[in-house]
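Researcher: Go.
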Amino acid sequence: EIQQAVFEDEIITHFTAQQNLFIAGSVWKSDEDTLKKMIQLLPQDWKILIAPHEINTYSSTWVNEEVEYYTRYKKSAARIMVIDTLGILSRLYRKGTIAYIGGGYGKGIHNILEAAIYDIPIFIGPKYQKFNEAVELVQKEIAFDTSNKETETILSQLISNNNFYRVVQERCQAYMSDHANVSAKIAVYLSNIERLK
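Model: Structure:
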């Protein structure tokens, strides 16, 4: 439903200017070292959105470059914007080229499917084992564990190799298609069990 809902945002449209976009969602302080390395690998013409998990206490000083804030957008030349408002992250992923889902260097990753429904490659921290969909996405090489030493190579390939990027997208499309309408399938399964009683 989120995927199919219309979403337009003048600030995001102006900021991203139809350029490639890296979205880091639900970011904690424990994600920052990994994100810093990933951002350094991104081409200068890529835009970056950072959505912190805790908006009120978040500091972007670790970025070491000019940063825009969504609620105070000044139309500067910055390539990084902090999303300091609630309620739009799940819809922002539709604009993304590559996503990073935060929390995996703390208690555990946040909702990985919010990004996966838009068929984009996803990076996560190593604490994802409690989430079956994350385990499956990593196994199918749709999501990538950033504690893996191959992270930089994979990110570079996604940026520079269109064929590799498309392969990951196609895997994601197939996975999401196979798992569509899960609620309806569960309801049928449960009703069948009830009939057998």
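Model: The radius of gyration is 18 Å.
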